[in-house]
Amino acid sequence: MTTPHNRSAAATAATSGWRRLLPQNRATLVLVVILTCQLMVVLDATIVNIALQDIRNDLHFSASNLSWVVNAYSLTFGGLLLLGARAGDLLGRRSVFLTGLSLFTAASFLGGFAQNPAELLTARAIQGIGGALASPTALALLMTMFPQGRERTRAIGLYTAVSIGGSALGLIAGGMLSEWASWRWVFFVNVPIGIAAVAVARFVLPQSDRSTGRFDLAGAITSTLGMATLVYGFVNAGTSGWADVETIGSFAIGIVLMAAFVFTELRAESPITPLHLFADRNRSSSYLARLFLVAGMMGMFFFLTQFLRGVLGYSDLKTGFAFVPLTLAVFTSSQLSSRVLVERFGGRRLMIIGASMSTLGMLWLTQLGESSSYLSLVGPLVIFGFGNGLAFVPLTTTAIDGVAPKDAGAASGLVNVMQQVGGALGLAVLVTVFGSASTHATNSAPAGLTAEALYRHVYTYAADKAFWTAEVFLIATLLLVTFAIRPRVTRAYDAVEDAAMENELALEF
Predict the structure, then answer these.
(1) Model-level pTM?
(2) Residue with more model confidence, 3 or 55
(3) Distance CA 61, CA 453 (A)
(4) Are 357 and 383 in contact (CB under 8 A)?
(5) Where do the H-state alpha helices sit in 401-508?
(6) Which of 35, 272, 288, 418 can pair with 216 through a Cys bridge, CB separation 3.0 to 4.6 Å?
(7) pLDDT at 479
């Protein structure tokens, strides 16, 4: 008769057998898989931006429907993040991660072959579902693979560089692929990378135990529909305005659904999002600070892309490469933050310095005018990127610091939710401000301007107002990290927790 002890011994022997076939730097391979997944998910939110015009011409999108190439992904990704995070906790993070990454890869393949708008939008929506399953699970796996301390901070530094820099890299990759090959390759490029990542992940990711709790179906439904409705409201506000009936209705329904979600979570035996995660002041403040910081960042990407193409007349490829200084600044500062600066100066101080630099960079961007050249952008891009890289590492660490392993998926999901909602919120607010300013600039423009001169005049005036609005988001971030987040008090039992986690990981392998 086989006893539990014998089964455990057999499982351990089998595991050690295949583990000997793997390289010694197993943790590095796991980190590579996690970062590859995160890069694919983040990059896909921006890589299509530069290719939109080619997609419109090839598939005959209407002007009003073209934005849904971006929004179909954002809506499903943002709406299903909490569900995806909890699914990882309940069904096993390795299984959910592989499912999400496989679904994302398959949808990318289908999107590349799309022959009409319906096929492309369906593929984009399925990509969002795959991303919502894979992204929060990836961060949760990172938390469990790297114990709290120096190694986790360094891993989060790389994760942060990918999360922020991936957006800028998407613009570069989109420009290269659309100009050198075809817009279809912004989707096809995910396929070989995704297949390789899935193949490696199957061998290097540890099995994670399934939770014994019941699946919170009511919480899953209300959170998914509520998040999706709120994201839709932000998206619709950017195109139809904040006073639009559909926008107001979306927000009203979303608020009611989220209120129902909170009520459900207070009573649920195994909530999809444990509300006690918000009881920690630092964690809650870091979530909100992340939302505002991303809101300012995504608006900056959107308007600078249009400035480079429409005002300076850059090609797709040249527009993409114009963001290289920002990408390099983000990567450099995030690595300095995670490897040296956090330990030397502390996370809170680094957040304040980073948010201050981002605020200064955005303030500099408000000085752009009709006669500005690319050289006028380099300084703001470097300062803004360096500040974001410094701030995001301790923001991410604060958001997941002290979270129990059983809540790792939920905490990771909330990090991604704040980033997704922040991007949608920022873009919607800034586009609305830009539209109102454009109308005013057009009506007050000097007579006799050529069409090109009128465009430059209107765009630079309206973009200035949008950048000032983004500056408000960044000031809010700075105030939060300065006054709401407190210095972390080192707990005597941190070392005990780290040792316990290391033992748990050893058993999982």
Answers:
(1) 0.76
(2) 55
(3) 28
(4) yes
(5) 408-443, 451-479, 494-508
(6) 272
(7) 95
